[in-house]
Amino acid sequence: MGLSTWFANFNVDTSLGIIQECAANVSVPLGSIPQTLNGQPYAMVLNEPLGPILSIAPWNAPVILCIRAIAGPVAAGCSVVLKTSEQSPLIHFELAKLFSDAGVPAGLVNSINHSSETAAKITETLVSSTYIKKITFTGSSQVGKIIASMAAKSLKPILLELGGKSAAIVTESANIDEAAEKILNSAFAHNGQICMSTERVYVVNEIYDKFMEAISNSFIKFTSTKISLPQRSTKQAAKIESLLSNALEGHEEAFCGKILRNDAYIEPLILRDVSEGKEIYDTETFGPVFYINKVSNINEAIQKVNKSRYGLSTAIWCSDILTALEISRNIDSGAIHINGNTVHDEPTLPHGGVKESGYGRFNSLWGLREFQYTKTITMSK
């Protein structure tokens, strides 16, 4: 993977945090002794490991998302079969090997590498295997639906962390300069190849002009210092170019930047006034692109955010914290970040989305519980 230095370090540091948090939760009490109502003197509720887990990890944050797919199930008491990404198989293989090198029992952590041509068949075989008790998948919503359908045939549970069209709402009380800088960073970090990347921004009418000036200044500053790295593939870059071309039909030019692609390299771009009829309006680009639309008030912004089929991460820029909290309660999103980036994930916090962004949660105790089932034991005298 071609990564900037900061994102490579972020991959490593966050992965260490995930492992430490999983280890910290291994000794958490695994059950309870509830009160019974039917005369039984005792009852115990235990959390038992589900059994072998099939974990399918993606390429975009290759260390974090692979470690997360292994450490959670293992900490919960399960073995793991890691299906590596065809786009980053060596990284995933080496990470799985580290567990064996560290001395875990044979067969606890396993990895399977394969070609793109055999991916579908291997996935279907693994998902349908009677040995596999649950599947985790991190990736696109399109592929997530396919894997969920496979799992449904044998009534297997599945943890899905899928795509996003993460939004930012900029209210009239926002710190405009800070909001502009952080939104741009969340949109362009790692070339937009993060599920939580900011892809749409809704700005209230009162501050729209000032915000557009601030975002333009931030864009100039960013493009003058950015390091040029390619998208993961030429195919991905071509998809982004197509979405942009469609979005700009009927417009003279973009707000900041222009459509410029060279093989797998594509330049950052900011659009404005994108209509709902354009494909890019609610399609994840997974590239260094976002759009800014004006709204008349906060309620309109909430409606537009919630109308999306995605719901992974949302940012609210507002200096009145109580108002921001009220807005947060009305947003359909797995995570809300008040005066912060949509790209925000920590090992101690649950991570996952709603709607087509998936279901279930990774990280910490919430993540461990995903790989256990509840067993009730009652005892008579």
Automatic annotation (TrEMBL):
Residues 2-377 form the Aldehyde dehydrogenase domain. InterPro entries: Ald_DH/histidinol_DH, Ald_DH_C, Ald_DH_CS_GLU, Ald_DH_N, Aldehyde_DH_dom, Aldehyde_DH_Superfamily. The active site is at 161. Keywords: Oxidoreductase. Transmembrane segments: none annotated. SUPFAM superfamilies: ALDH-like. It comes from the Eukaryota. GO terms for molecular function: succinate-semialdehyde dehydrogenase (NAD+) activity. GO terms for biological process: gamma-aminobutyric acid catabolic process. Belongs to the aldehyde dehydrogenase family. This is Aldehyde dehydrogenase domain-containing protein. It comes from Debaryomyces fabryi. The lineage of its organism: Eukaryota, Fungi, Dikarya, Ascomycota, Saccharomycotina.
